[in-house]
Amino acid sequence: MSHVALFHSVYGLRPAVRAATDRLRAAGHQVVTPDLYGEPAVDAVDEGFALLDKVGRQTALERARVAVADLPPETVLAGLSYGAGVAAELLAERPHAAALLLLHGIAGAPEVVRPGLPVQVHLADPDEYEPQDEVEAWQRAMTAAGADLSVHRYPGPGHLFTDAGLPDYDATAAELTWQRVLAFLDGR
Description:
By secondary structure, this protein is of the alpha/beta class. The chain has helices at 15-26, 45-55, 57-68, 82-91, 132-144, 171-186; strands at 3-7, 30-32, 76-80, 100-103, 118-125, 148-155. It is globular.
């Protein structure tokens, strides 16, 4: 069983995030899924960025910090798209995190990665927000920093392919992602 902090995408705390939380809890993990906005979730990416601008990146990050403050140091930091960046940002402050789980986005500064840190990534292929050359450069940097990195690419779906409420959704890729995530978490 792992403790997991799962941070939502720029869309906010959507039903898909709650469904992911339920799935992880059903597998025996303790999961917190903080609302970084304190506002209702949205259905379009431009609305999500407007909401993030309204709330402010620093406010969202501070809400993330508060949400993990009382969690064990070895909590897995996880995020969906924008939330992947939040998880990676917190890694610098939580060096004993058991793992970094990034869904729909790459993030993380190699200089804060401790050797052997398990990092699992799930990305669409191609992904309009994560160009292949940037992903490859990031992979090289994370590996050079000593991360125990596994990257899974899913041909065909759109960026947020695990969110059944969005046009990007791909049921096959989503199911495979969650199977891999559960196997990854079981090893923590």
